[in-house]
Amino acid sequence: MLSIVHTAQKVPRMSVQPILLNGQWTNSTGSKRFQAVNPKTTEPLADEYPISTWEELDQVLHAADQAAKTVADWPAERFAAFLERYADRIDQQSESLVNMAHLETGLPVEPRLKVAELPRTSNQLRQAASAAQEGSWKMATIDKTSNIRSQFGPIGPVAVFGPNNFPFAFNSIAGGDFAAAVAAGNPVIAKGHSAHPGTTRLFAMEALAAASETDMPAGFVQLIYRTSHDDGCKLVSDHRLGAVGYTGSRSAGLTLKQAADAVGKPIYLELSSINPVYFLPQVIQEKAAELAEQFAGSCLMGAGQFCTNPGLVVVLAGPETETFIAQIGEKFRAAPVGTLLGSSVLGSLTSAVKTLTANGAQIVAGGLPGGGAGFCFQNTLLRVSGAKFVANAAALQTEAFGNESLIVVAADEEELLAVTEALEGNLTGCIYSATDGSDDELYDKIAPRLRTKVGRLLNDKMPTGVAVVSSMNHGGPFPATGHPGFTAVGIPAAIHRFAALHSYDAVRPHRLPPALQDKNPTGKMWRLINGQWSQGDVG
Amino acid sequence: MLSIVHTAQKVPRMSVQPILLNGQWTNSTGSKRFQAVNPKTTEPLADEYPISTWEELDQVLHAADQAAKTVADWPAERFAAFLERYADRIDQQSESLVNMAHLETGLPVEPRLKVAELPRTSNQLRQAASAAQEGSWKMATIDKTSNIRSQFGPIGPVAVFGPNNFPFAFNSIAGGDFAAAVAAGNPVIAKGHSAHPGTTRLFAMEALAAASETDMPAGFVQLIYRTSHDDGCKLVSDHRLGAVGYTGSRSAGLTLKQAADAVGKPIYLELSSINPVYFLPQVIQEKAAELAEQFAGSCLMGAGQFCTNPGLVVVLAGPETETFIAQIGEKFRAAPVGTLLGSSVLGSLTSAVKTLTANGAQIVAGGLPGGGAGFCFQNTLLRVSGAKFVANAAALQTEAFGNESLIVVAADEEELLAVTEALEGNLTGCIYSATDGSDDELYDKIAPRLRTKVGRLLNDKMPTGVAVVSSMNHGGPFPATGHPGFTAVGIPAAIHRFAALHSYDAVRPHRLPPALQDKNPTGKMWRLINGQWSQGDVG
Questions:
Q1: Could you report the predicted ipTM of this complex, rounded to two decimals?
Q2: Which helix (H) or strand (E) holds A365?
Q3: CB distance A451–B475 less than 8 Å?
Q4: Residue of A448, A487, A508 with shortest CB distance to B459
Q5: Helices A76-92 and A197-213: crossing angle, nearest 10°?
């Protein structure tokens, strides 16, 4: 995903929106501000949003720290109640949220924003609430003989940096990271994405109301819109912060990672992914037209601005492959060109396509800006030989975030496996193979290598759907994310990112947290007692 | 823990020991070498060990990568069989291991090496084998409706850097990190500690024999003794490596961390910890003599060279406290002075005590080198006021690894809480309070603050025992470790450090790993099926 950075503008003040600081909408002391842009019209929207100063961030951190202390021993029900109330409020405000997000992102109202992404967002909050309440995510572990007990507890205030491409489901103050951080019992400092500050503000209003209705402390949910890069680095490395969730561009993410790593602060990143898709020879023989249709649909949907967009295709050379590539090219040319999320997405897509062609990729379709409404770029299909890909593997894995894909045509199996070895870490990897098993020998050579490069391995389907289920891994090896053991989607696993392991050794019974007392607090929570998983009490 | 670094010496070749490379004992191509030193006599031991070149490390990495590919789809039984065979072999070689470790470390043969640490080491290997075989650690998760399944799988070859202070239980080729990495299905590249290369070599001989007897691939277990710092950084950031486990000095650990972080390579560190112990006023009234005895025993045991050694004490000022401090000082003066692990431990302890006194700490007992056999330093007790501690918090938390502790005397409760706020991350934190509950009000103010600073919170006992049980957390916030969500001791949690989350989306049934197939492969493995934990098959 890519972060949009607008140049800070000194323009006549219209209505500068306040930040949410310690439970109050507060005017920023920052003198710089920015506006969102309607990507369909390329015109700025009316509201102005502040670029916060360090002085403000310091106050935000102090309030979050106080809130973390206040809620440290609260029962999980409290966090669940807030999340549920917030989810209800979001559903009630559907119309205004959808309208604002449409204005700020150009994403279609239906089905995308209204029917898919907003219900998904409130559903995520409810899943997090349910997991918090049920409690098994804590991995409560009790050894009676040694009288040592452990559980995952809150890690401390979490700073969430949201991306541009999911104004709801990954929003810094409503999305998956927010839900997971709260479920673990942590206050959140949301840093809104500059492309959709109005959407984020509407969420924050509901979050504040829900927090008030459920008696959360003032600094539990806070919102800033933007900071300088230096202040962002100070924020993520501050001693009062527990952890960071970041989804966005690789360059900004790595800058924050360096700052956080230097002080051992956990930072979870979702940076970039080109999501390789393999079409093996026999499945192309079997159903090339159907595959071309599926692929073009997945690649061009939402102008290709999905984290799991299939940006790389791997095939073996041959006449059927040439026909298949031509079919995909036709579909790319025939499909309408979508609007990109903003000027910087257009800029980086243009630049990425140049990098790819400069390193040996040839244009099959598209290749230039334009072709649709507002910020847009022709649906673009590129191709390159396997040999060139291997020789220039880093450059040819440049993420071209948007409606673009690069087909790598390997001369033979050996070259195809070399392409696989040269892949960087990705969120997903797909292999399509023939129904009758005639591709299986080749599948068995590719799959073990691909397995180590991706978080989610798919068969015979496109990667763009990310189901919100426990088994989902929306993660993967670097540089797709910062750690291959964690996922940004999927409860309860996503919650563990924002938890610290807390062991209690001979701590007196009345001082233990509920999950570690002899009596199972819900009668349903799974706990590892003397080496056995159990929903019972300690005997 | 502290790493000993000997100056590389160019001395006449006696018997330069080979490294274990790809299943063969192989002469190093490195021209530099080093010798271990008997800390009791301060004389070098006979054998020489090589400092490996990058060329060699590259071969080691290649072999490990090949081994990882070979075992990628092996059933857990294979890893368990190796670990069990290895544990048996270690028990059979107890005498030679204990003798060699005693020579190289000066640690007592009984009970320490023979009765405590060696059985603990083979027990850890057997626990890891059992967890691998049982399989619940994989957190297999199956959602039938979406047909997505996930589990924790191997992360890739693991480099293990062992510390000086546990030649067995944390040995790079036999200790906890090794056991956890193998249980997750990963090859290990062991980097022995320079203080006990002979012990490590004896382990490696048994590991190689066990690997051969259980048909592990050649590069599954490898050993090098030492590298240059630059080559160490290249090793931990190599693309063929999956993760790193490091236990040792903070400075060397942070150098490796920076290299690994830059390429998003998971690195687990156990760096340093001073393990604060609070004695509240009423418990001092209740049993000062008993507490002084317990504390001195824990602090001076093994010359204080434990990761969880109580290096910081926090008390409230008062006449009873003065008597208590005097009692502890008496015990420190009366107790025999142990031998330190080596000259560099002596050097860093001397330097740390200087740093502490230069920053306002006063000597109550000891304070100078000497007082025992070989490398040694007087049992040393320091004191400082709470105000000075808060004003100079970083310097006064310098780890003085060895038989030393610093008592912080807070003027009042407010100052005591300020001391607590100023604490860095630690492995453990203990609070002793009166049996009758008369300290509970103060306890309730300290505990929530201390909870966020430590991995393991103790009541009324010393931190130096680290039970090998599932609920143990031998971890904690930075700078004690690199991530507060992981532990180096305690199966199954310790295994997760060396695992990647692998999701399978619509992957054809016969291609799924055993743990994710409909049928429960052992009938005992716990799996999260459609949101419910179960030992059953998928219905």
A1: 0.96
A2: strand A362-365
A3: no
A4: A508
A5: 130
